[in-house]
Design goal:
With about 90 residues, this protein is an all-alpha fold. It has a domain at about 55-85. The protein has helices spanning about 15-30, 35-50, 60-70, 80-85. Helix 2 runs antiparallel to helix 3 and helix 2 (about 35-50) packs parallel to helix 4 (about 80-85). The protein is globular.
Length: about 90
């Protein structure tokens, strides 16, 4: 795994700003809710971490995004598939 210099910031952004705007627009048009978006984001961070493409320092921020969504929208209001993904279960 490559180590970044201490003065270089680690970013969780997997996509450029324009790509992020496009994916947000698609999510709105396809009616993908925030729970699905944050669980997908966490899943991507996990996969990239396993491939050593994301440093350990990024994980708390990624988990924080999910926790922020849980505080804003309790799990009992999430689609069941997103709750299963957050719990780590796969069918």
């Amino acid at each position: 795994m490559a180590t970044l210099p201490e003065d270089q910031e680690v970013t969780l952004s997997i996509l450029s700003t324009s790509h992020l705007e496009l994916t947000n627009e698609c999510a709105i048009r396809w009616r993908l809710g925030h729970p699905h978006r944050v669980t997908t984001f966490l899943d991507i961070i996990r996969l990239r971490f396993e491939r050593e493409e994301v440093p350990l320092e990024c994980l708390p921020e990624a988990i924080g995004k999910v926790m922020q969504e849980i505080r804003r929208n309790p799990l009992e209001h999430w689609p069941w598939e997103d709750v299963r993904r957050i719990a780590g279960h796969r069918s």
